[in-house]
Amino acid sequence: MEDSTLKRFGISMEGHLLRKFDDLVQLRGYENRSEAVRDLVREALIQHSWEKDDQIVAGSILLFYNHHQRNLLEELTQIQHSMHDNILATTHFHLNHASCLELIIVKGKAREIQQLSNKLTSIKGVDYGKFTLAPVEKI
Ligand code: NI
């Protein structure tokens, strides 16, 4: 049976991160930190639930990175070539002297697309990665 009683646990984080989190809590109109954390956890679990799925999905992987980072471009290219069947398009924007934004449009089995996203966003030098996806056909 589903346990819906509220449990308490402690969270430690750096002061600067907590200040930014509090800003977010206020900006999004949450009652308190707990409510915001619950929402973030739910969001993460929804993404996570795709990881074993054979459902065909399409989506985008957004990456911000510094192209001066050693081996980053080689690794990025190698991973994308290894899963070329799942990549519909890639667009690269040079934001300034060092920073790049890359948008990768993907389609395939949810499990594989999730793995691709995990590989790309965990490359050393990727400062920020955002993965969004939706089923191609209604579930
Ligand atoms: Ni660039």
TrEMBL record:
Superkingdom: Bacteria
Domain Transcription factor NikR nickel binding C-terminal per the UniProt entry, residue ranges: 58-133
InterPro entries listed in its UniProt record: Acetolactate_synth/TF_NikR_C (IPR027271), ACT-like_dom_sf (IPR045865), Arc_rbn_hlx_hlx (IPR013321), CopG/NikR_regulator (IPR050192), Ni_resp_reg_NikR (IPR022988), Ribbon_hlx_hlx (IPR010985), TF_NikR_Ni-bd_C (IPR014864)
Alphabetical UniProt keywords: DNA-binding, Metal-binding, Nickel, Transcription, Transcription regulation
Amino acids binding Ni(2+): 81, 92, 94, 100
GO molecular function: DNA binding; DNA-binding transcription factor activity; nickel cation binding
Cofactor details (free text): Binds 1 nickel ion per subunit.
Gene3D superfamilies noted in UniProt: ACT-like. Chain A, domain 2 (3.30.70.1150), Met repressor-like (1.10.1220.10)
Necessary cofactors: Ni(2+)
Biological process according to GO: response to nickel cation
Family: Belongs to the transcriptional regulatory CopG/NikR family.
Function: Transcriptional regulator.
This protein's name: Putative nickel-responsive regulator
Source organism of the structure: Lederbergia lenta
